[in-house]
Amino acid sequence: MNLPNKLSITRMALIPVMVALMYPNNLICNLLSAAVFGAAAFTDYLDGHIARKEGIVTDFGKFIDPVADKLLNLSAMIMLIHLGLMPAWMVIVILARELCVDGLRMVAVGNGKVIAAGQLGKIKTVSQIVLVLWLMLFRLPVSGNVISLVLALWVVGITLWSGVEYFVKNGAFLKNSK
User: If you average pLDDT over residues 107-128, what whole number do you get?
Assistant: First the structure.
């Protein structure tokens, strides 16, 4: 297994650590959970950078990288619901988009094609990371803070927009599926 793929696996392995650190909800654990989340999120940039620079982009990497991103971001968001910092409906909208896009990816794989993430998908991921870090560090709930609300609405909007774009660009796989 190449280094970028190991970094994606590492990102997934850090999720239980982050979740465990979010439960106590005290200053030290809040900072540590944000640091673990930030380090895990940084591996997303790092694995893609290394894969492209070294020319070691693989089908497994194209598959596992977005899965690791979604698991990390959604795990953090679910914990933010638990902590009362993010409304469940927003996470449900984000989760629905992710499941729909993954379903399309599975259909494409069934037809022998791996679909890599597009530019809007990357912006969506970075936006989600920024929102999660903001909420983890400052503990300002979406329902009670203008900056948190604006960030959260941006994330929901860009998440939906990137999902629509994904289907517009790749929807032919649904028409041509076996």
Answer: 86
How many helices (H) and strands (E) are present in the chain, helices listed first? 8, 0
What's the pLDDT score for residue 108? 85
CA–CA dist 95, 91 (Å, integer): 6
| Residue owning tokens 């970094």 | 7
Q: What's the rounded mean pLDDT across residues 31-49?
A: 95
- Whether residue 80 has pLDDT greater than 90: yes
Q: Which domains does the chain have, with CATH numbers?
A: 3-175 (1.20.120.1760)
Q: What is the DSSP letter of 155?
A: H
Q: What is the mean pLDDT of residues 38-65?
A: 90
What is the phi/psi pair of residue 171, to 5°?
A: -60, -20
* DSSP secondary structure string for all residues of 13-68: HTHHHHHHHHSS-SHHHHHHHHHHHHHHHHHHHHHHHHHHHHT---HHHHHHHHHH
User: What angle, rounded to 10 degrees, do the helices at 3-13 and 27-54 form?
Assistant: 160
